[in-house]
Amino acid sequence: MIFKKKIYGFVSIIGRTNVGKSTLLNKIIGKKISITSKKKKTTINNILGIYNKNLHKIIYIDNPGFLKNGKNNYLFNYNNKFVCNIDIIIYVIEGTIIKKYDKKIINNLKKINKPIIIVINKIDIIKNKIYLLPYIKFLKKNINFTELIPISAKFNINIKIIKKKIYSILVNNNNNNNLNNYFINKYSKNFIISEIIREKIIRFLGQELPYSTIIKIKNINIINNIYNIFSLILVKNKGQKKIIIGKNGNKIKIIGIKSRKEIEKKFKKKINLFLKVIII
């Protein structure tokens, strides 16, 4: 069975904003790793979703949705250290209409010689599946893809098929030199903590704050079996800093309490969480 063999690799998930990339990533990994929200553009970092179980070590890069200014072309920066190591590209689209920014992505994909899995998400909202046929025909004409899989990430439809395809491509992959345990453990822990904090900020402050808030884990130390986590909340101006802190520090206190409780639940450890808001 393919599942019993060693599987290593980097998988990049791309697509325009709000097509369900973060939800798909969470379903593939089998746990919540990336913020999902009705608020657009909640994925602002290149997410490291890391699946590390038994013989399987796979790093998922969840690229931010392509923005209207067209500047968000992380995947297509060939000098980027992650791009050089990418083994599979998962291109997520939705519905049955090719939009302007889909065409930009498709044009870029033509330049990349990597296995491409096209995922048509949200098929649960397509009432007449016959409309998928011309859409698929268009994709076949314009992208040399390895597999095309219609799914519903929300309802877990065909997620197992995606995982099996990923495994089948990576099973003979020798790209494991960069997947050492230090890398896996460091980035998965820091990333999960930072995303929990950022999610609480988004959930609690809603539309008060722009989506561009960045969380940076400065340090984690352990004293008497208690994890002391020091985190920076990076904002752009005094107004944003004031919003997060709140009157007499009431808002950042709530964010800290809610974040700490979820981090403790996640890692099953006693946590002290220290938050500091700074302007960059």
How many distinct helices? 8
| Global outline | globular
* Rg from alpha-carbon coordinates: 20 Å
- Number-wise, the strands total 9
The computed structural class is alpha/beta
Q: Mean pLDDT, as a whole number?
A: 80
Q: Describe the sheet with the most strands.
A: 6 strands, mixed
Oligomer: single chain
Question: Can you give a write-up of this model?
Answer:
This protein has 280 residues and is α/β, with parallel strands linked by helices. It contains eight helices and nine strands. The chain has helices spanning 21-29, 81-85, 100-109, 132-142, 159-170, 181-205, 238-245, 250-267; strands at 7-14, 47-53, 56-62, 86-94, 116-121, 147-150, 214-223, 226-235, 270-279. A six-stranded mixed sheet has the order 2-3-1-4-5-6. It is globular, with a radius of gyration of 20 Å.
What is the strand and helix layout of this fold?
Elements: E1 7-14, H1 21-29, E2 47-53, E3 56-62, H2 81-85, E4 86-94, H3 100-109, E5 116-121, H4 132-142, E6 147-150, H5 159-170, H6 181-205, E7 214-223, E8 226-235, H7 238-245, H8 250-267, E9 270-279
Parallel strand pairs: 1-3, 1-4, 4-5, 5-6, 8-9
Antiparallel strand pairs: 2-3, 7-8
Helix pairs in contact: 6-8
